[in-house]
Amino acid sequence: MEIIRKSTRSILKRDFKKNWFAYMLAIPVLAWFLIFCYGPMWGILIAFKDYKPLLGFSESHWVGFKHFIDFFEGPYFWRVVKNTLLLNVWGIVFGFTAPIILALLLNEIRDGLFKKTVQTLTYMPHFISIVVVCGMIHIFTADEGVVTQLLQFITGKDYSSLLGYSSFFRSIYTFSGIWQNVGWECIIYLAAMSAIDSTLYEAGEMDGIGRFGKMWHITLPQIRPVIVILFIFAVGGLMASGYEKIILLYTPMTYDTADVIASYVYRRGLRESSLSFSTAVGLFSAIVNFALLWATNKIAKRNSDVSLW
Amino acid sequence: MSKMKKRVMSLLVVSTIATMSLAACSSNNNAENAKATSDNTAEATNNAGTNNAGTKNAAANGADAAVADLGTVIRGNKTPTQEQQDEVNNTTNDSYLADMFDQKLPSNYSAYPYKKDVTLDIWIPANSNIADMNNQAVKKQMEKLTGIKANFISPPVGQEADAFTLMISSGDLPDIIMEPERYPGGFEAGVNDGAYLDLTDKMEKNAPNYTEWRNSDETRRKTTITDSGKVLGFYGIAPYSEWTWFGMLIKKEALEKTGMEVPNTIDEWHQFLLKCKEVGYSEPLNYGSTYGQIFTGIINGAFGVWDWTFLDSNGKVQWGPAQPKAKDYLATMQQWNKEGLLNKDWATADFNQRMASAISAKTAVMMDSPDTMWSYWKQQNNIDFVGALNPVLNAGDKSATTYKNFERTGRSAAISTKSKNVEAAMAWLDFAYSKKGWEMLNYGEYGKVHLIDENGKPYYPADSYVYKDPDGQPVSTALDKYRMHSWPDIRDEHNSNPLIVAEGSYSGDIRKNWTENMDTSMAEPPITFTQDEASREGELGNQLSTLRGEYFAKIISGELPVDAYDKFLKEAKQMGLDEFLSLHQAALDRYNQR
User: Fold this and answer.
1) What is the pTM of this model?
2) Would you state the pLDDT for residue A193?
């Protein structure tokens, strides 16, 4: 025991002597994590307190699980949890697969100019502010908007503004998200594809597999690690939801599909600045997210050789 | 050596990247509540260069032994000399001002110029119309007249909430805090927790003008005192209840085309809207929007189904959506919606979409603020309009609204427990409640911005800076630049808002007419809750408003039948409607005891 510890230390010492500069390079990153990620973690405690900024952290009164109980017992608890999960499930089913498909398609194109044009066009919307995007969605789905007209043409039914139908909300939310981010998210897959050894494709050619065969048997398995890791992250975000886009798009008409945890807490925050309550809800979401992340990681480990840890 | 250089360089690069990602990750995306509240003034966002409406600092600050009567030289004077301007702008002589209101404005200037050299730190949210708050014209004038220097500390626009929390938790508080009700749990909670001073015992001595003014009228006294009889801070209080600012607005041409009178009862409105549709307005009534205008008490009020809490004929608090005629209201709206009398996108339209349909040929009637529509209809598109009183159910009923301004307007201010200059801070704030303060804060500088007419009333001449800004800014910006639009003072909105008193503007007339001809007896006064009550009230209120919004919108759109209302009422009761009402009732009883 003693010997091992010593040797570890001496190994470390030696390694530090040899690679001291690499250690130096890591310092800013480590410092950043310590100061900005681990430092504020004590703040979680206010979920169990009745936090008052002036009394500060230590002086505020403990209230135990009061805020959690308030949240769990609220009449809309199940609805907002369900909506949060479902919106994210839609996001994974459609939003996660779309960039992979786009990357596969772009990868097949040999014409540089056309490829570049498509890439630029698809990743441009990523840089538009969410408020502007929501303004565009409002216009496109208004009763005389492009999307609405198209839908009327296809179905032959008469629709008013699409944002007024709760059954359309998830589609609008998800597909506008895809439109905005698909080009951006496919860059990482394209990068992974560019690293694939071209001899594999040549071998495939010899074996006489066609284009789709190559995609299925060579490209996809080669970028599988990237896909799995990103998928684990995506599942770890199932209970997370940004409220900005939701509150810009939802109305009382669509609450039953659009009201998520974050927007519900936000509305509550309008009436009273309830810092402790918001923290409690955030903590609850984070715990669920972590559990999901852990489970997904375990499954990934069991079924493939790729995992986060 | 070169290896070393390389290493230093790469270390630099890595640190830079780290700092950059740090900045990106820790930037707090604080989407401040983007609710488009219809402001009383037309919206305008642009920034003027700093403006120094500085008169030469004429040394006229000596306390005059005997105050000369300036009435004869200033009243009716259209071209005051520099000397006369200095006399008005730099001294506390107010002998030329008339008494315009039911109660006399206080004129206690004994504290000015202040005996000590003091600079006050004041936390105040920035105004996007003003480039540099510390260079605001009126602020500088106040320094001159009171002899107390003020240093404004303003957080970046849009980050007020975070900045406020940070300031409070740091414990390092300035002398004065504007908008103290931002404190979690409200103003009184801030006093109880020791952030703000309780000024009850100091008011009489250090704020004679404010004390006199708040006690000059029962409503003013009641709304500026707590349930337990404390005076916490300085509130904006008006000489009168300000006018109602939203209601039914009809395009003049729609009246001409239909040949009909301005409708009054719900049935007349129905006939009128049908006729409008006949003559070509495809969606005659612009009804509702995402920011809650579906509930304005304008149409629902006719059925007694007020938006939220109100007082019944016995003075007890009731909840509008639970009133007996709610089903009639919902059935009527469902019917109108079916007949195509409402804009198709009423459930989803945002402010810009509403304004776009307002100026289109589809719309005949808007439910909005005449000030806003003055800008969109009249000024930008030359569409004339008239205001209609809120509809009533039966001919002969009196129009009513639950909107009432209880003479409380503008801003509030508190003095922090950390202030070392409490007396000076009170004197500085108190100036705004004197007659001179009323003139300077509402009407800006004498000579360049306002003049005094024959009767001693301040007015804006045609070439006033608020109408003809040397920097070319529009009136909606100038009203913040040359005067204090929202302040803990005696706000004189009706006479001093340049948009209302502008030549030819009739939005003020419409508002005045509404206010004088509508019953406001059911309006709930500005009650206050205790800290425990406030959090429970917030929770229940949020749940009830979600429920109401959802059911009402779905019933009106026809997605649910009118009978779904029964289910709504049952759910509201299960949620705790009775508890919610009892919280309001308790707070109201305390308010009445004040």
Assistant:
1) 0.81
2) 92
